[in-house]
Amino acid sequence: MEGLFFNVNGGYVEGIVRGYRNSLLSGQNYSNLTQCETIDDVKLQLAPSYGDFLASLSPNPSTSDLASRMTDKLVSEFKYLIAQATGSSAKFLEYMTYGYMIDNIALLITGTLHERDTRELLERCHPLGWFETLPVLCVATNIEELYNSVLIETPLAAYFKGSLSHQDLDELNIEIVRNTLYKNYLEDFYNFINTHPDFSGTPTQDVMAEILQFEADRRSINITLNSFGTELSKLERRKLYPEFGKLYPEGSLMLSRAEDVEGVALAVSAVADYKAFFDAVGLSQGGGGLGGMGGGPADGKSLEDLFYQKEMDLSKLVFTRQFTPAVVYAWMKLKEQEIRNVTWISECIAQNQKERIGNFISVF
Amino acid sequence: MSGAVGREAVFPTRQSLGLMKNKLKGAEIGHSLLKRKSEALTKRFRDITRRIDEAKQKMGRVMQIAAFSLAEVSYAVGGDIGYQIQESAKQARFRVRAKQENVSGVLLPTFESYTQEGVNDFGLTGLGKGGQQIQRCRETYARAVETLVELASLQTAFLILDEVIKVVNRRVNAIEHVIIPRTENTIKYINSELDELDREEFYRLKKVSGKKQRDVAAADAEILAARQKKAEEQAANPKVPDATAIFVQEEEATDVLGEQEDNDVIF
């Protein structure tokens, strides 16, 4: 039933995205890329999918230039999509940009705290996280002003409200602020796709719920692992866990009590997928490199790699469904991973470290 | 040789000869000491050169690993974290202490690096994702900086030692090729001048004594002639007592004494 009228509003966007999906690099492209000797060769190999955006690059560009050009293409395509979307699809696409907004705001708050010229910071902001009132953030010169008059105008105001006061912005580590916001954002997004009348009971709800649950679990696990050895207390840590996902609530509770890697492995052991990841990297046996691409696992896969792999698999599966704006989300994630992959490959080429060049994630 | 280095402007006296001999002795001791110092420094210098070579090669490797770990971070985090790191770093975790080391009287600064435990300003960066990579990247870079500090202290020592070795070698060469030959020349000159004086004196003495002998011979002949005349007179008139003969004999004795005394005065 949901397919009957979907194409009236969302058909064009979905069609465009499926077209974009076809320009994603395939395994064949990647194996060509890994054979490259210089960045120029990489550029040449990327020409079919990124042609006009890479054309203006100087010969032998730096990897960061390459990555920023690729991001430019992603941004311009996404902007086209969001301009074409209407109704609930448009709202969905807006939700996707909130994650980047959080990063931008965290950046600006850091700048304001250290009394930097915030205008410079605007250039560093991620273009997807751009919103109309973002430059207004530069007007604020102190944290209180920022909180009271500026943040309230942003789309993220709801995420600040209730969990962070302006004193928190001053005292808390900006990373905690960022992760609190992100937690609120994920919960809100999850709520949105589950309760919005256009989405509940549609494929969108199915696939996005799974993806967001995974995202929430991944964040909880990562936050736990990364907080070992820092001053982050268990109580504060618990506040950063999104309150949904496969791990919630028992797993989250156990995570919040975990004191070492084994504790985390135990907490996630209820979910088969995550247990498999921990087994694969050998963390559950209590040892070795923490999610290390560098040290530890023999096959070179780290926990983060496995998470990325899982995310890509989920994103790939989204394309098997129809009549849903979730394909845009999936395409976006795949594209980002692709940019990371190309950056990794070109770093390996630039630094002459070919032995680890295969450490990217290709799903097609 | 003597034309090249010349000699010092001194009067060729025995006193200055003594002074010069002392100076030569001092110069030789100084030369051997400086030579030894120069050798010790050169040994140290070679050692440092070797260690610089090692450190540079090590630095190449470490920097490569560090740059690669940064690539890992950007892969894991999926973006640029440079700004966050810059803003959240407030205290230095990695610090450098400067010390001085004494190598044969040369003060070489050495840098010693140490990490201030407990300073962990961006421990929470990448909390959501990539935190472990960031921490590992930091460790790798800390090692890279350690190598850099080691290299810096070696390079400083290298420069300072180079300068000092040059100065010492210049001194050694100056003593060996200028001061010692010049002093030797001066000594030679003083000796030759003194010898010359000796010879002159000897010749003069010989002359004086020759003249004295002639005078004595003439006096002897006169006395002899006087005696003969007396003997002839006695033969003619034997009654006259031989008083004059005694007088002459006495006079001869004092004359000899006088000559002896004269000799003493000269020498």
Task: Describe the 3D structure.
The complex is a heterodimer of chains A (364) and B (267). By secondary structure, chain A is an all-alpha fold. Chain A is built from 18 helices and no strands. Chain A has helices at 2-9, 11-22, 27-34, 39-54, 63-84, 87-113, 118-124, 143-150, 157-160, 166-171, 174-195, 203-227, 234-239, 250-257, 261-268, 272-281, 303-318, 326-350. The longest helix of chain A has 27 residues, at 87-113. Chain B is mostly helical and 267 residues long. Helix content of chain B is 77%, strand content 7%. Chain B is built from 5 helices and 2 strands, in the order H-H-H-E-E-H-H. Chain B has helices at 2-5, 14-77, 82-88, 131-236, 243-266; strands spanning 94-103, 106-115. In chain B, strands 1-2 form a two-stranded antiparallel sheet. The longest helix of chain B is centred in the last third of the chain and has 106 residues, at 131-236. The model of chain B has no long low-confidence stretch (mean pLDDT 83). The interface between A and B is large, with 47 and 29 residues.
Summarize, please.
The complex is a heterodimer of chains A (364) and B (267). Chain A has 364 residues and is mainly α. Chain A has helices at 2-9, 11-22, 27-34, 39-54, 63-84, 87-113, 118-124, 143-150, 157-160, 166-171, 174-195, 203-227, 234-239, 250-257, 261-268, 272-281, 303-318, 326-350.
